[in-house]
User: Fold this.
Amino acid sequence: MGEERLLPLFPLPVVLFPGAALPLHIFEERYRLMIGEAVRDGSEFGVLLVDDGKLTTVGCTATVKRVVREYDEGEFDVAAEGQRRYRTLSLDQTKPYLQARVEFFDDEEIAPPDSERLKLVVDLSARITSVLRSAALPALDAAGLPSFVIAHHLPLDLAFKQQLLAKRAESERLEALAAHLQELLQRVQSIQRTQQSAKTNGQAGPH
Assistant:
C-alpha cells in the first residue's frame, strides 16, 4: 500500500502528468480559498479529470510554483506543476471545495525504457509535430519518464492521456504511445492531404 492522505481536489477537463506545467486562472471563491492555502503552505492539491460531468479515479497532484498575476476582483493566475500520481479512495465534502482520501503510487517496474521503442516514439512525435507545424519536443531525459513529457506535448485525446497516467510501467506507456502515435500520424497526414487538395480544388499544380 502507498501513502494515504486527505487531498484538496481541483476537477478540470485536463490530464496532468508529473513534471508538466499547468497554468491556471483562479476565479471561483472555493478555488481561491483552496489555491490560496496551497500557495501559503506550499502544499499539494489534486488535479483530476472531469469528463462529461464524471470524475476519474486516477489523478496527479500539483504545487504552485509562482503567482503570475493578481486582479482587483480577487482573481489570480498561477503557474503550477505536476508532482505525483494518486488513486482516489473516497470523496470528502466537509470543506467548501472537494477533497478526497487518496493513495499515492509510483511505477511498479523500475527500469530504463527500451531504447528502440523510445526512438520510435520520438520519431513518430517529430513527424507529427512537423505535419502540424507545432513546436518540437523538448529535450528528453531517458533516465526519467519521457512518456509523460511526450504525452503532455502532443495533441492527444483526454481518454488516452488518462490511460497513460494510470499505467504503472514506462515500458507499457511507450508501447501504448507507439501504437497511438502511428494512428495519429496517419490521421494528421490524411487531414493535411485533404486540406492541400481543397486549396487546389483537387487539381494538380503546374509542372
Remarks:
- The chain has a mean pLDDT of 91.
- The chain is about 40% helix and 30% strand.
